[in-house]
Amino acid sequence: MLPPVDRSLHRSQNGAALVAVLWLMGVLALLVFGLAKFVTLDSAWVTSLRGESEARHLAESGLAVGAHPAIDAGDPLLRREMPDGGSYAVRLISEESRLPLNELLERSDTTVLRRLFLEWGVEGQNASHAADSLADWVDKDDLVRLNGAEDAVYQARGGKGPANAPFLSLDEVALVSGLDVVAAANPRWREAFTLWSDGRLNLREASADLIVATTGAQRARAGSWVLTRGGRDGIPGTVDDPPAPDLAAVLGLLGASVTPEQMEQFTLEGATRRIESLGRFGRWNFLIAQISRDGQLLQREEYPLPVLTNP
Known about the structure:
Layout: H1 7-66, E1 79-81, E2 87-94, E3 99-100, H2 101-106, H3 110-119, H4 124-138, H5 151-156, H6 170-173, H7 179-185, E4 193-194, E5 201-202, H8 208-215, H9 219-229, H10 247-254, H11 260-263, E6 266-267, E7 273-281, E8 284-293, E9 296-305
Parallel strand pairs: 3-4, 5-6
Antiparallel strand pairs: 1-2, 2-7, 7-8, 8-9
Helix pairs in contact: 3-4, 3-8, 8-9
């Protein structure tokens, strides 16, 4: 006669097996989910790499077109749409369209910088602090200007102190005390400055805020000049530009009162060529800028721009 079956033991074994199966299914689900997530992230990473690479390639193509000696501002070849949706847009300007920062600071001309920061909406005390701090960064002494900053300020923040020498890059400018407030008011502040021009400001290409800051002109006069100088297409250096007045006449139109020495700080022709090529592929953008004078390359800048959320 067979011994009686222990049904409770059987049920216990079945229950343990069921728990083991459920545990194994849970582990497998986690593995599958993790793998799917990894594949998704990896696919997004590859897509991002391809998008940036394509945008950069388009920017390089536009740069090659812009660098051709037969190409002038306003030429239709400076813009192109590709069949796959990519594009490039090239801008030909002079580096003198930007404010020569080192030359300004060499003259200790913080008034121009303060005016510019005020134009951007920086509060008066903060504008004075940023302007004086820029001058303190490059001068050769350790004396603190009225609203400036020297070593003690940077050491207290655990940062790098003044170089006591001209700026070598705009990245270095960003380290100056007070520039964080300026950047908050105008995130594109770098576009206002240059370290590579011949030291003059080109009034035929400079933006209205730079003209106001350097000449003391009223905003309305500077804006009116900017609207009329480029002709119907608004692009300086093209065939529809109105006849070019001389420098004294332009300053007269702006209502600026400058001395003969100050007039030497302005020009109507840029000596330093700047080519900016923006490549775009889908949501990705890549910018390349090339600066040269007399055929000699002075600087090349390239960097990806923020990805667009709505291309």
